[in-house]
User: Fold this.
Amino acid sequence: MSGAIVLGNGHVVTGWEDPTVISEGAVACEGDRIVAVGPEAEIRAAYPAARYLDAGRGLILPGLVNLHHHFYSALARGLDPGVEMLDFPAVLDRLWWRLDRALDADAVRLSALLSAADCVRWGCTTVFDHHASPSFIDGSLDLVAGAVNAAGISAVLCYEVTDRNGPEGTAAGIAENLGFLRAHIDDPRIRGVFGLHASFTISEATLDTVAESRPPGTGVHIHVAEHPVDDRFSRETFGATPVQRLQRHGLLDDRALLAHGIHVEDEDYDRVAAAGSTIIHNPESNANNGVGRLDIPRAAGHGCAIGLGTDGMSSAVLRALRFAFLGLRGGAEDPTLGFETVPRLLATNSRVAGRFLDEPLLGQLVPGAPADVIAIDSSPPTFLGSENWFGHLVYGSSEAPVRHTVARGRVVLDDFRHTTLDPAGLASEARVLSGALWARFHELSWNTPFLGPSADASKESLR
Ligand SMILES: [Zn+2]
Assistant:
């Protein structure tokens, strides 16, 4: 248990749903809990011996949550696959599925550390990571968890089960999820969820095994209809949409995390809403891959909960939020959109993280909540109140650096300085290690069948 900390001299925004804004406010933490929130003078008088962190008149916010990340993508920056990628299935096959097969233990460890350091840097204190390393499966989640622990943040981790690497890969992926889930069932900061790649690379038998073997109360974290190929292949091969397949196998429930959810019909949005599942919007990734854009008002209109992720593009959640906001307006050619639906993404993220970590107050700056608090280096130049906090966030503060990150009462970013990890040292190590990783990558072939080498080749079109 660490001593008391007061994070003050800032504008405290107490949460993401009807927050209170305290313009000269402070937050006090003791151990891993928030113990008091209020006017600066009162908090400092009540905690005179506490360590003081100066927010520099910036925003003091709850620690951010990222619902969909891929730590393993950290060493892909600048990698040229050396082959054309004309559509999203080709991007998967020729870039990501080659990269994940090239990852060894060192690459998994280092990419996780780099990404975890980036989470700290951008004020993300809880991250949902979706991991894949088919050449090194057994024990891979322990390495990712080691990086999360070293950073001092919280996480919900999974291994991506898929049939595309053959039956041994499927079995090893399932075993890796099960072992990790059981080992972390009571962990206060790091839990598991059952990872699945996407409907188009998972057979009926594998979904049966997942449904039968997952411990009660375990959710699944899966890509759903990121590109039309997922929907088309699932209908042609299994006679059902990706959402219908999850439902038929009893996997569509209030812990199901559905990344993307773009190419989804109205009836399936109704199914998602009725089940209480969460769609995770990844706007920067969707734009980068040219796969289309989630129609947030449409999905929300069906009652779907929608959260926000970065999908390995970065660890900067507030930048993804700004991109979601602008993408919604730009894509719909409608400057009135956004204020109704986009702030709710942050609220959904916190609610979902709280559900997985058994922390119902996560994402709120209130006494008793986990001490996940950040200060953004952005002093509001105009009035900031409970009615316009989101405008300040999306039009300015989302672009500002984070000054302090406090994760479960531990100062992991102190006046812009990392206290747990050394990003410059990690980058030096990564520049050496990534050379070997890229060399292995370039030796690997592509044209991976969706359901593995033994599947019916006639159903393995990449289009
Ligand atoms: Zn993803």
User: Anything to note?
Assistant: The pocket of zinc ion is lined by residues 68, 70, 130, 223, 259, 311 (CB under 6 Å). The longest helix spans residues 423-443. The chain has 15 helices and 18 strands.
